[in-house]
Amino acid sequence: MSDELTVEATGETVGEAKWAALRELEGRFPGLDKSAVRFEVVSEGERGLLGVGYSPARVVALLPAEAAEAARAVVEEGGIAADAHALVSRIVAALEVDARVDVREDAESVVVTCAGPDVALLIGRHGQTIDAIQYLLNAIGHRTYGDDRKEVVVDAAGYRERRRATLETLALQTAERVLASGRREELEPMTAIERKVVHLRLKELEGVATSSEGTEPNRYVVVLPEP
Question: Confidence band (pLDDT; 50, 70, 90) for 1?
Answer without folding.
Answer: very low
